[in-house]
Specification:
The complex is a heterotrimer of chains A (about 500), B (about 210) and C (about 650). By secondary structure, chain A is mostly helical. Chain A has helices at about 10-25, 35-55, 75-100, 105-125, 130-150, 155-185, 190-205, 210-225, 235-240, 245-270, 275-295, 300-320, 325-355, 370, 375-390, 395-410, 410-440, 445-455, 460, 465-480, 485-495; strands spanning about 65, 70-75. Chain A is globular. The chains are: A mainly alpha (about 500), B mainly alpha (about 210), C mainly alpha (about 650).
Chain lengths: ~500, ~210, ~650
Amino acid sequence: MNFASLNAAAARAEIFLAVAACAILLLGVYGDQARRAARCYGLSLVALVIAALLNGLDFSAANGSAFNHMFIADPMAKLLKIAICVLSAAAFVYGRQYNRHRGIFESEYYVLGLFAVTGMLVMASANHLLTLYLGLELMSLCLYAMIAYYRDDRLATEAAMKYFVLGALASSMLLYGMSLLYGFTGSLQLSVISSVLTADAATAAQPQAAIALAVVFIVVALAFKLGVAPFHMWVPDVYHGAPTSTTAFLSAAPKIAAFAITMRLIVGGLNALPDIWQQMLILLALLSVAIGNIIAIAQRNLKRMLAYSTVAHMGFFLFGIASGNAPGYSAALFYVLIYALMGLGAFGVILMLARPEYEADQLADLKGLSKRNPWLAFLLLLLMLSMAGLPPTVGFFAKLAVIHALVQSGLLWVAVLAVLLAVIGAFYYLRVIKLVYFDQPPSADPATAAQTTTTITEGDIAVSPAAILLLSCNVLAIIALLPWIHYLIAICNEVIRRFAV
Amino acid sequence: MTFLQFAFYFFASVLVFAAAMVVTIRNPVKSALFLVLAFFSAACVWITLQAEFLAIVLVLVYVGAVMVLFLFVVMMLDINIAELRAGFTRYLPVGGVVAVLLVVEIVFVLARTFSPQQFANPPSHAADYSNTRELGELLYTTYVYPFEIAAFILLVAIIAAIALTMRARAPRKRIDPVRQVQTRREDRLRIVKMKSASRTAHRDQQDDAS
Amino acid sequence: MTNLYLAIPLLCLSTALLTGLFGKRIGPRGAHCINIAGVAIALLLSLLVYADVRGGHSFNGAIYTWAVSGGVPLRIGFMIDQLSAMMMVVVTFVSLMVHIYTIGYLANDPGYQRFFCYIAMFTFAMLMLVMANNFLQLFFAWELVGLVSYLLIGFWYERESAIFANLKAFLMNRVGDFGFLLGIAAILYLFGSLDYAVVFAGAAISDVQNAVTGFGEWQWTTIICLLLFVGAMGKSAQIPLHGWLPDSMEGPTPISALIHAATMVTAGIFMVARMSPLFELSETALSVVLIVGASTAILMALVGLVQYDIKRVVAYSTLSQLGYMTAALGASAYQVAIFHLGTHAFFKALLFLAAGSVIISMHHEQDMRKMGGLRAIMPITYLTAAVGSFALAGIPPFSGFFSKDAVIEAVRHSRLWGAGYAYAMLLLGVFVTAFYSFRLLFMTFHGSSRAPEATRRRMHESPGVVVWPMVALAVPSLVVGVLFFEPMLNGSLFGDAIHIAPRHDVVAQWAVAYQGQSGVWLILAMVWHSLLSAPFWLAVAGIVFAWYCYCKNTALPSKLAAASGPIYPLLQNQYGFDWFYQNVFANPSVRLAGLLSARIDVGLVDGVLVNGVARLVGRCSAVVRTMQTGLTYHYAFAMIIGLFGLVTWIAWL
């Protein structure tokens, strides 16, 4: 074996990002506190953009693999990686001011973020149970730390602890499932596992119930990572407790990475056993759409509400995978990308509204926002409409694609239930719009009230126009992408068609 | 039963017993010591599987370094474990029932369909076979990618641990020379225009100033 | 050329949007400058297109594919041939006159810019309607026309009567539109396409099978044509869907009245002419069209006799003339119908503007009993009104004479079932028409003034912007008939834009009488021939009788009314159509709606379904929420339970 046979160039984005993270870690040691944080922040953005470009350069190249088939480069991996890098960079930009106000604007925060993104990229390209698991752990470990980074906040510490403990539990289940799978198939490589299982299915030689056990453990672990009911309990606490900048980060790219490992494991590895996981995924998806949408109604905290909405959205995207056909996978891919865009935008709006000593995360804080800040109010309106899945937003088309796939695969009753539950969900999204546009603002603007109690100069408080501009682009994409919606769906279809098993 | 089988079942039983004691015993120091026993037993099990290098590393790293460190921490912090375990007995019946049911189910399913006879024994190696060398070769060639990722995970663990614990408190009473040098006159001196009370008073002030 | 076609409606649309959205910013002056410039350019371009089309360049094609649904492409496209090109000229010309006239008529109205926005939008809709090459676009434009007319009638929305009138117009048109939509649906069902060309071609070659309905077997083309004609009845105000037109005079008189009477109502006529390849296949449908048209012509003319509101007289005369056009359509004389439509647009516009001019002068008094003797004060208005009245009565050589005579001759030659009835009704209509149009002229302009002293002192001729459009319309009212009679007669006016089955071609049969004559000689022969025929003498008799009643023996009309028994009240009440609709449809509907609203909507839907479900979900939410305790080991336990459940389910099933 020589070095060239590793074909390491295929993984250049991951390698670049890991090296860049190490370099930034070193650069973050020199200079005074504020300046090195700013330097690391800027360099992280540059690194993420370069990583995205490295993936985008040979987007349509033929499928390739590296590191003895542990790493796979197919269009889906590249598309997801580009999305992960771009959305993470945007999350950094949105959270910058927030982090500064809370003393977590430090170089290590961004280094951890870069390593988390590296982990996600590894997940997106994983073709081997080992790399898949390690990528997942790399990402998770960074996320635990990023959540706990706001150390002065009790909620954040608690959230990180919960996430860590439960995450460890889920990881152990994943490992157990993987070990069983290894026991049955004799390989850790997903493509080999798939072919062995397919051959077994053809000869009916496999121990059906035992393999089902492995599938259950794997699905449960995935469900935890996706935040799907009944393994969703950590989601609201973590979303609520984490500093909003981290929540924004958490709400976008890791969902895409979770989609990636779901596709790799379920569709790439276990494609011979659809009758085992299909029922399970439908049950989980239905449960999460129901629980997410219903509990979200009772929330008074915006971040918690969005957390439950995430649970519901993840359930919805799982419908796409559960439909078990190519249109369904394509719809799920489209859905998760659109959701990441919307979720990031929603937390971005909260970040823009937050001030020192003021989190802006209560629903009551939104009252009369249209009079205080009409532009952000409008962005929030678009986001809520899109999340509720009302036309003419892309959120509608994402839901439509999933429902369409469900109907196509003959799961009409699931489609009907999904639509009904989505209608229940529309309630709390529309309530936000009502608060923003129709309620009277509280007598004293909490944002300005918070400013007067602290002795921070105006220049520190102002959110940078670049961040607002980026957020506006992010949110307006919900409407502006409409003319190209068929093109986007076509890309998703093509990506799924060339999905490497 | 061959000796090898006997050794395996013996060490496996010790391992399970030790692991159970780790989570049930009240004294944290004893609990840590049982963990040491569990590691030893695991190392012995690995030796029966011809994984000598791993067994040695497990003893060296975990028993020799990690657990010693862990014992120091446990003794220094003086954790009141009884408080942490309050409610343990209350949840034991429910948790126990579920755990037992789960185990029964798993065993039932696996026992029904999954037996060692299904799989051929791996080929045994010659006496001069080097476990260490084989492992090293695999790690640095076939598995170099996961190996590197694992390395990054460890790096992240270090960064996270340091970043979360070693953080300078935000408001420190420290002079920042950069800002000190950058001070402008307007920051220090404020000129207030006031109406003069009377002509004479004004002259007095002027006299004072000069 | 395609860009040119596109530019014509888009000009109007863009000025409408500009005025509508930035009305405040551009001000009244800006509003009328922009809009008049826009529609004037549109007129010039339309003339260019007309000239081009006369040169033989017709066009039929899609401009833009809007969507593809179920394999049916939904397109925006244009069909430019002699028919649509002529309609474009008429629409833009009348619209331009309206624009100019509005400057004077609505000066100082707070809704000035809004009105310009509406009429520009209206012009856009009409242009899209006549230029359409498929049924979908036709329907969209059709609905847009209806919407704008609703807005125009209710322009003075503070007025109770205006609100009532616009609602009535909207509802009545809805009935027609429903039929129209059903017709389009039937076409899509049968031919699988909405393109005119495809449908016409399909209708011509395929022997479309019969449809079995609850009333026996019907030819599909008959069903389609009747449904389409229901739409035309709504838009072109044929009995029994005519009631909205007189009420629409509530709009800012007489401009919106003119919009309706001279332009919008022609949409139905145009549509039937456009659909001639379909209508030709169904004699039943043609008979229905013929009878409905003839009935409308006579019945509405009779109602016009007893009206005193100057606008309403003109409105009823419009209804009656529309009946003439429809009768011509029914007799397969499509070109005659469009010809009459064109001449009528000019002289009816003229009459409306004249009536408006009178109303301005009378300080918004519309009752003819309070007028009289205006001839001396308003000479130009008088002269132009007289031109309009002569044209309406059908006296040669005014344009109305040629077109109306052509209609009557066409119906006379028709061999369809009901043609005899139609011919008789139309002949009678000539007398009545002449009578009421001159009744209007004599009551308003002749005799001595019956206006109050205060009004009389302030009466004067209208300003230039009001007078000049009238003069501009008086000229075509005089000459259009002469100019277009010959091409109409020999069929070169529309070429192959309309399709007539040889056995229905009444115009050709009529033209046999003038074989070999052309130019001035043809006109003279036509005039000479008509002097010896009934319609001309009936018209003259009507005029003389009107003169006798309203200039000579002014007591006679009231004596006649008293002697007529139940007929006069019947006419005054317009045959009770309004009463019938109000009491049979409107009131019970409102009552039923009230009942449903209170019981079903508020009680069941809102109370139980909507609020009930919302409360149920809220309660569920509160209950499920308590599961989220915040304790880590609860969460872990939940995960284990979930795992346990899934293992049990999967492993044991």
